[in-house]
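Here we describe the complex-level prediction in full. Unlike the single-chain runs in Section 2.1, the two entities below were treated as one system.
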Amino acid sequence: MLQPSEVVDLVIAMVLLPLIISSSRSVRLPIRRLILAAFGSILFGYVVTILEGFFWERVLNTLEHAAYAAAGIFTLMAVLSYLRRVVVPRGDVQ
Amino acid sequence: MSEWLIVVFDIVSCIAFSAAFVAVLAVPHREFRSQVRVVRIFLALAIAVYVFVGVSNILEHAGITAALDAYEDYAEILFVPLVAYALFAASTAQRENDLRRASELVRAEHTLLTGIIETSPGGIMLVASSGEIAFANDRAKDLLGVNSDPESGALRLPSDLVCTSTVSSNSRPLDLQRLAAGEVFDSAVCIVEANGRRVALSVSASPLTSPDGPVKGSVVAFVDVTEREQARQDLLDAQARYSLDLERTVDERTVDLFALNRELERANRSKQDFLARANHELRTPLTAIVGFTGTLLSGDTGPINQEQRTQIGMVKESGEQLLSLVNQLLDMGRVESGHAVIESIETDLGVLLTDVVELMRPIAANHGVALTVDTPRGLMVRTDPDLLGQIVRNLVSNAVKFTDAGGTVSLRGSADAHSATISVTDTGIGISADEQDRVFEPFVQVESAQSGRPKGTGLGLAICRDLAAALGGSVRLESTPAEGSTFTVQLPIGAQGA
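The structure predicted for the assembly as a whole is:
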């Protein structure tokens, strides 16, 4: 069943996508690809959520949740990779 | 089945996002400074959205409750804006950080450059394209007397400043209009007079240009070279004085030398006159003595007894020695005075040496010495045959004199593209090494060679050396005592000599 909020999510995501990509380009982080992969997975989840309202409901619904799981894993990898680079001992915190 | 798979995915999603959330919030790291803390907050909120979505999905798909599902859509709608804002804030913070670092770098470089310029021993000025002095360090102000306009505060040169180039009157290294136009100067030295002071400056200037624009003025650097220029001037003055002194001294010495030369010429003429007169006066009676004693010894004028023969023979021999001495003195004088006439004639060296051998053969036979010649006929050299013949005769005569009976004197001639070589080798008594250098000196007799041999004049080898020099060549000696000597004459082919 197609829900308006799902369409709104996708529209907002598509509108803000250029801003997200351009901002991520200026952030000099080696984990940029992991962040974009996580974000892409979420977007993919949005798309299949909408599509499941029209066909293959169960398969696409499963894919939606798989996409969220992948996004979670990419996000965790990105955060851990970032922390491995910049984490400092507690006594040295500014 | 698919429901449980979905639950598994949701559990994985929930755990992963939760762990990321905790890591972002709990772990301190130096990148999160105050200006980017907001990034961390928004990132944590974005992650929290999917922690909540994960929990909601687990409860719903595990069949526990769907109470949170109604709030899920509201939470999800926040995710993308939160991520976008977090990334935008991070990007802005990054740019701010870069700008701050660049600004710090510029400030540090400015401090360094200011320090260098202010402590520089030379003056440094910046002339704008308008011709105004945009900057001058303390040394520049001191050297040029740069002052500030009381009203506008603009820097300006003293109105009475005069800059005179030491190289060219067209070169004006401190002309502000030229500097504004970007004229280049490289260590141009000029004398600057301003405020009653006079200093010598070495000025260098290079234009300030932008990659795609016109000249924006010049950077001018100058150092005080007054002491150096003064020292240079002193040196030039001293050099000029020294040159004058030297010229005066040379003139005086030249006058002295001319006077001395005239004296020498007079003395030489006197010597020549004396030699000519003495030789004439000596040769005439000596020739008569030798001739008449020969006539007496031949018995044409009547019989003489043995004692008379012995004594007349001694008179004749002494006369001949004296005549030989006089002749050699004449030769010596002729060569030394430079009056010897030297010809340059195509000469067959083989014929010349053979003639000398034939001439000297009777004398050699009297001494029991064999004479040999080893030179092919037709070996042509261009030289003076009379002088060369005299050299060879003297050498052969000398060799025969100091070679015992049964010995040999050999002549050998050869020539290459540049020189002719004649060697006279004997098997005589030889000359010791310490006497070899002296044998070519006039009147020098080798002591060890005198016992039991006819006494020479000591002029033969000296004449050989002088004649060879007159022909542009040389004579050298190689000798081993008790084994023999080799005199080698080397003459340039075609040389006419001195």
